[in-house]
Structure to design on (986 residues):
């Protein structure tokens, strides 16, 4: 080393110590905020001078809350430990017993085992119930941890021993416990369905935002937190992290994510070659969240006190998760050799500790004081959403049988020896002979444990989770509000979308229910002609409108307001659906009958957010989903990805989703009014899917007596007055294709002497459900008076051939065809969509008037009613090409 | 004083609209923000609110008319005596 370099080195050292001294001086005299400001100014100066400071969103791999900043623990550590041990034991025993029965029903032990401390700190110190004077928290419990939540409810006296024995046996007459949180199956207990994974965190974000929305509109008192418990592996689901910037943008400090970082997913490590906690920290900090890491327990922090040269922090930061997982399995000697053994100074640090002591050093998520400090800091934090990253061990406490192993997630059976070991480790007072036969130990009601546990819940506002619906039914808006739609448009051409927007605008003005309506739209309001609502009720924005909108001078300007009513979600169907769920369950969550109307491109509903629709059914969400620009041939020009001809079929499996494909204004009005009545006045647990179209045509007056048929799914729109004609057809049409059917009926009567009755089919799903009900009854009660389906009743005396056409796949009419008195011929739009005009599309998919005419003539030919020559002639006249390519596979 | 109420700018790219219904009549008293007419574009029905208050002395539109942005919809007497004469040239008949 030359003298010059040595001199430079010395200068640099002096320079560094001067800067550090300056920093210490400022810190002491002006505090940390001034330090941050100075560092920020330095960064700006460096950047301006062309010095690029490398970006890092990470802090060191240690606890965010230092030992010095840790608040005193307010609880009784020993009693809380005993309660937690009991819960661990009961949860484990419940799953093991369920799997020793005949017909093993599965279950998971290891998620709760790793998260027990996280939950218990929440239950004893933070989770707010809905008692007097409390707004109550919304808690999204990680689905796989449900055994622990049941075990606690057993100690609280809310679940019986018989129910514990019936874990995963929903059909037991005395009551079972659902595998995961399912409000549909346990409506007084679970509030939020959290499996399928990823949906819990997504829904939690929008729940927190909806709470803010209600507060900003003056409909709910401020208060209450939304907690989302999720696994580190779960964050690989795009839904888990996909909406986190919304939370920071909206400054949702009422939202707390708790990520149980046990480093393992189902098959193996979450990030064997990396560090999931650091990865998540960078993601959440980058997105503007406040991140709290609880990585190390007290024992490790004592070692950190000795780490004057930073070697331990460095080592903590360089070890990958796969290796940390191995430490939890291999024992103290392995940790000494492979973690501390990399540096003599580190080895010296633990020389006085035994291998057992090393092995027992806790991770942060298992240390009640660290978890308490993290939760306390989270609930007190203002201005940002908070995420707690807690490091744990999967299967903690399962010992040899499953702690930290790759197969731990699947672990559900422990043998007697393993249960005995578990019992002893956690000090459960159960005799050896009772371990298998009677394991559900509960201390007496006047024991310290039960008294403590109940008192804590009383102080915090009552038991959680718990769902009690306390909402008054609302009065359905009067007929007069809808009457204009029954009269038709007197020749004016409008679309059903325009009709819907008008209905919505009127509902928003209604004195009784107007304020309860929540329009939700994923950035397509102008597509649907909803911009007039911007001015009428405003777009919700917590910040209000901080700018002068570019179109301020126009009537329909883009108006954002703090008390705005529209949830404009941007191009984001999953978020919109989550808002729909939050609004549609406000009757449970907040005791308010909010009525969401979520309108979107129908193609991006069922097939894009189908999993959330299923969750909406489980949670009991109410409201209207409106698939706009629907119909494979009605949405012209947009092509293959946009043209929806199957969302109605995808809606079939959701049991409590009522669907309609209306053609006319009055049908839509009748359906929406009845929907409000059924959901909010009669309090049925159903929700609606209605398709809307963008084709303009004159809306007719409602035929007399049509109301019942509209709701049942089918009614006769037009009866032929051509009594003298010998040939007869019954034509069925839905949505805009009903117009093609009407045209076809006229051609058939005028040109081919076939008298046609025309039926409007508003819902194949409703028809099928009605028919299935009757069929099931008849199958189970063959000797009783047999029931008739609505279809059978309506068509029993109808003559002629049956031809059904819609803008959807043929499977819809086919799904009800067996209840028709004779064969039903189905026309539909199977196949990928095309960019084209409506006329060309309807020709291509063979649902235009001429194809309906020809299908009807073919049906008559098959029935022997007309000759082949007549059919050939018709084909030529109509321009039917029998060799045309099949739209289904071309 | 008599004041003209003209069809305001509706939104970007909207130059005219059809009158779906007229919600007031001559002689009525209107308040600020009260809906005067309903108009239809090819996508939406829009209520047009008044920006002035007073008594309607003259109404220039009826259901079915096509009205252009900027054309006079009505004249409102806001009180006082000055009379203003208005020629409403922008209102065209609905195209058949």
């Amino acid at each position: 080393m030359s003298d010059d370099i040595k001199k430079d080195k010395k200068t640099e050292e002096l320079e560094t110590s001067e800067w550090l001294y300056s920093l210490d001086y400022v810190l002491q005299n002006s505090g940390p905020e001034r330090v941050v400001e100075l560092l920020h100014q330095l960064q700006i100066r460096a950047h301006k001078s062309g010095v690029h400071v490398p970006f890092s969103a990470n802090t060191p791999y240690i606890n965010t809350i230092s030992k010095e900043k840790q608040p005193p623990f307010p609880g009784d550590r020993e009693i809380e430990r005993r309660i937690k041990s009991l819960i661990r034991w009961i949860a484990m025993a419940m799953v093991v017993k369920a799997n020793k029965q005949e017909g093993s029903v599965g279950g998971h032990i290891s998620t709760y085992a790793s998260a027990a401390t996280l939950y218990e700190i929440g239950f004893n110190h933070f989770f707010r119930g809905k008692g007097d004077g409390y707004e109550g928290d919304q808690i999204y419990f990680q689905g796989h941890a449900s055994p622990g939540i049941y075990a606690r409810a057993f100690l609280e006296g809310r679940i019986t021993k018989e129910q514990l024995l019936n874990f995963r046996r929903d059909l037991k007459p005395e009551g079972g416990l659902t595998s995961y949180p399912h409000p549909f199956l346990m409506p007084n207990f679970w509030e939020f369905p959290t499996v399928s994974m990823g949906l819990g965190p997504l829904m939690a974000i929008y729940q927190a935002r909806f709470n803010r929305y209600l507060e900003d509109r003056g409909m709910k008192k401020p208060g209450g937190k939304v907690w989302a418990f999720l696994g580190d592996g779960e964050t690989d689901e795009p839904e888990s992290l996909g909406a986190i910037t919304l939370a920071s943008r909206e400054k949702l400090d009422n939202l707390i994510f708790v990520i149980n970082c046990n480093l393992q997913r189902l098959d193996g490590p979450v990030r064997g070659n990396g560090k999931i906690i650091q990865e998540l920290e960078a993601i959440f900090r980058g997105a503007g969240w406040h991140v709290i890491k609880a990585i190390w327990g007290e024992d490790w922090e004592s070692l950190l006190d000795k780490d004057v040269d930073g070697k331990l922090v460095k080592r903590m930061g360089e070890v990958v998760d796969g290796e940390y997982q191995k430490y939890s399995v291999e024992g103290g000697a392995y940790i000494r050799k492979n973690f501390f053994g990399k540096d003599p100074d580190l080895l010296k640090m633990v020389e006085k500790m035994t291998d057992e002591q090393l092995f027992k050093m806790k991770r942060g998520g298992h240390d009640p004081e660290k978890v308490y400090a993290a939760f306390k800091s989270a609930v007190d934090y203002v201005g940002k959403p908070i995420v707690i990253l807690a490091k744990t061990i999967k299967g903690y406490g399962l010992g040899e049988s499953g702690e930290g192993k790759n197969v731990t997630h699947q672990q559900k059976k422990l043998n007697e020896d393993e249960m005995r070991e578990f019992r002893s480790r956690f000090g459960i007072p159960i005799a050896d002979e009772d371990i298998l036969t009677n394991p559900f130990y509960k201390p007496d009601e006047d024991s310290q444990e039960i008294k403590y546990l109940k008192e804590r819940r009383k102080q915090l506002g009552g038991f959680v989770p718990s769902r009690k619906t306390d909402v008054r039914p609302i009065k359905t808006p009067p007929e007069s509000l809808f009457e204009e739609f029954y009269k038709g448009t007197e020749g004016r051409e409008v679309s059903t979308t325009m009709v819907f927007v008008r209905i919505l605008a009127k509902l928003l003005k209604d004195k009784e229910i107007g304020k309860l309506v929540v329009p939700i739209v994923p950035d397509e309001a102008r597509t649907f002609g909803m911009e007039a609502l911007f001015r009428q009720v405003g777009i919700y924005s917590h910040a209000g409108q901080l700018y002068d909108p570019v179109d301020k001078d126009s009537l329909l300007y883009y108006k954002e307001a703090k008390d705005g009513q529209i949830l404009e979600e941007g191009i984001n169907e999953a978020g919109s659906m989550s808002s729909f769920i939050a609004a549609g369950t406000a009757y449970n969550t907040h005791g308010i009958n909010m009525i969401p109307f979520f309108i979107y491109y129908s193609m991006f509903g069922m097939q894009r957010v189908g999993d959330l629709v299923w969750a909406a059914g489980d949670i009991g969400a109410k409201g209207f989903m409106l698939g706009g620009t629907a119909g494979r041939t009605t949405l012209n020009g947009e092509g293959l990805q946009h043209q929806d001809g199957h969302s109605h079929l995808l809606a079939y499996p959701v049991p409590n989703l009522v669907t309609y494909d209306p053609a006319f204004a009055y049908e839509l009005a009748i359906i929406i009014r009845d929907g409000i009545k059924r959901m909010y006045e009669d309090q049925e647990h159903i929700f609606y899917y209605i398709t809307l179209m963008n084709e303009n045509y004159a809306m007719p007056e409602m035929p007399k007596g049509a109301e019942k048929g509209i709701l049942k799914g089918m009614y006769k729109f037009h009866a032929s007055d051509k009594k003298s004609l010998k040939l007869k057809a019954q034509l069925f049409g839905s949505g805009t294709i009903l117009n093609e059917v009407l045209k076809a009926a006229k051609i058939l009567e005028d040109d081919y002497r076939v008298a046609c009755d025309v039926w409007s089919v508003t819902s194949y799903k409703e028809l099928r459900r009605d028919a299935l009900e009757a069929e099931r009854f008849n199958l189970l009660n063959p000797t009783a008076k047999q029931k008739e389906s609505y279809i059978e009743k309506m068509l029993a005396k109808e003559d002629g051939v049956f031809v059904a056409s819609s803008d959807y796949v043929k499977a819809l009419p086919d799904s009800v065809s067996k209840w028709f008195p004779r064969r039903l011929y189905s026309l539909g739009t199977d196949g990928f969509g095309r960019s084209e005009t409506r006329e060309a599309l309807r020709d291509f998919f063979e649902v235009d008037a001429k194809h309906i005419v020809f299908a009807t003539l073919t049906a008559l030919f098959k029935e022997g009613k007309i000759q082949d020559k007549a059919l050939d002639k018709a084909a030529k006249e109509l321009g039917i090409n029998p060799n045309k390519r099949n739209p289904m596979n071309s | 004083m008599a004041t003209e109420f003209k069809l305001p700018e509706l939104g970007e790219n909207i130059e005219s609209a059809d009158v779906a219904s007229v919600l007031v009549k001559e002689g009525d008293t209107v308040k600020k923000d009260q809906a005067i007419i309903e108009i239809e574009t090819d996508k939406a029905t829009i209520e047009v609110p008044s920006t002035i208050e007073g008594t309607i002395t003259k109404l220039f539109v009826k259901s079915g008319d096509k009205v252009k942005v900027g054309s006079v919809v009505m004249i409102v007497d806001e009180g006082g005596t000055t009379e203003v004469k208005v020629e409403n040239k922008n209102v065209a008949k609905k195209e058949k």
